[in-house]
Write a structure and sequence with these properties.
Elements (H helix, E strand, L loop, with lengths): L2 E6 L6 H14 L8 E6 L5 H8 L5 E4 L16 H6 L2 E6 L2 H6 L4 H13 L3 E6 L3 H5 L3 H13 L11 E4 L13 H13 L9 E3 L8 H5 L6 E4 L6 H15 L1
Parallel strand pairs: 1-2, 1-8, 2-3, 3-4, 4-5, 5-6, 6-7
The structure holds phosphoenolpyruvate.
Phosphoenolpyruvate (PEP) binds next to β8.
Length: 250
C-alpha cells in the first residue's frame, strides 16, 4: 500500500510564489517514487489555481487546508466543496489543530466537513491530536479517540477507504519537538482501533517531521506517511521526504 506524504503550506506562499514552489517540487520528484507514494500539496486557497497548473499531469495531488460543509450560501469568507472540486482539488485537510485552536472548530464542525467532503468526492485528511496540557494530564488517548470517533460519526464503512487520519500531537507542531517513536506508534495504533473499519485506513504522523526523523516514523508499523508543515515549504526538503516515503514502501 502506498505511503502518503502531504505538504501543508499553511498561510504561506502567494499564488506566484506557490506556483514556483510547486514547479520546483515537481522538478525534483522521480516518477519511480510516485509508484509507492501518494504526494499531496496543500497550498492556501488563493494559490490552488497556480499550484494546480504547475502540477498538472505530474501525478502530485492538489489538496486544500479547510473548507465549509455547505455547498453555497451566506457564509462570508468561506470556501465550499464544489469550489475546490472545480479547481482540481482531490484532498482536503480537516480538523487541523490550528483550525480548532484559532478558529474554534469543534468536533461536530469537523464531522460535518468530513461528510461534505465525501459527498463531493474529496478525500479528507483528518487531523487529530492532544495538546500539551492534555498530554500532561494523561488525556492523550481520550482526546484522539474522541476526535476520531466524532469526525467519523455516521460515515458509512465503505467510504472509509477515502479517508486518511493524521496523528499530530499539538505540542509537536512547528516546535521542533518530536513525539517519541514508541508513543507515536502506540497512539496511531489506538486511532486505528478506535472505530471499526479503520484498520486499513492510512494513519500519518505529523509534528516537526523532517528529513532526519521521517524515516524512523515511516518504519513504525502503524505509520503510513506524514503530514508535513514547515518542511514542505522547501522543495528539496519536501522532495527528500517524498523519497523517504517511497523507500519505506518499496
Ligand atoms: C502541520 O501543520 O500539520 C505540521 C505537522 O506542521 P510542522 O511539520 O511544521 O510541525
Amino acid at each position: 500500500m502506498h505511503a502518503i506524504v502531504a505538504g501543508n503550506w499553511k498561510m504561506h506562499e502567494t499564488a506566484r510564489d506557490g506556483g514556483q514552489l510547486a514547479h520546483d517540487i515537481r522538478a525534483l520528484l522521480d516518477d519511480a517514487w510516485l509508484r509507492n507514494v501518494t504526494v499531496v500539496v496543500a497550498p492556501p486557497f488563493t494559490a490552488l489555481g497556480a499550484v494546480g497548473n504547475a502540477l498538472a499531469g505530474s501525478g502530485v495531488a492538489l489538496g486544500a487546508q479547510n473548507m465549509h460543509w455547505e455547498d453555497a450560501g451566506a457564509f462570508t469568507g468561506e470556501i465550499a466543496p464544489p469550489m475546490l472540486v472545480e479547481l482540481g482539488v482531490h484532498y482536503v485537510i480537516l480538523g487541523h489543530s490550528e483550525r480548532r485552536r484559532y478558529f474554534g472548530e469543534s468536533d461536530d464542525d469537523v464531522r460535518r466537513k468530513v461528510h461534505a467532503a465525501l459527498e463531493h468526492g474529496l478525500r479528507p485528511i483528518i487531523a487529530v491530536g492532544e495538546t500539551e496540557a492534555q498530554r500532561d494530564a494523561g488525556e492523550t488517548d481520550a482526546c484522539v479517540t474522541r476526535q476520531t470517533r466524532a469526525a467519523l460519526d455516521g460515515v458509512e464503512r465503505d467510504r472509509l477507504e477515502s479517508i486518511a487520519i493524521a496523528y499530530e500531537p499539538v505540542w509537536a507542531i512547528g516546535t521542533g519537538r518530536n513525539c517519541e517513536l514508541q508513543e507515536a506508534d502506540r497512539v496511531m495504533s489506538l486511532i486505528k482501533g478506535s472505530t471499526s473499519g479503520l484498520e486499513d485506513v492510512p494513519v500519518l504522523y505529523g509534528g516537526s517531521a523532517n528529513p532526519s526523523n521521517f524515516a524512523a516514523y515511516l518504519a513504525l508499523q502503524s505509520c503510513r506517511g506524514g503530514l508535513i508543515g514547515g518542511a514542505s515549504l522547501d522543495a528539496q526538503t519536501f522532495a527528500t521526504m517524498v523519497r523517504l516515503g517511497a523507500e519505506a514502501r518499496a
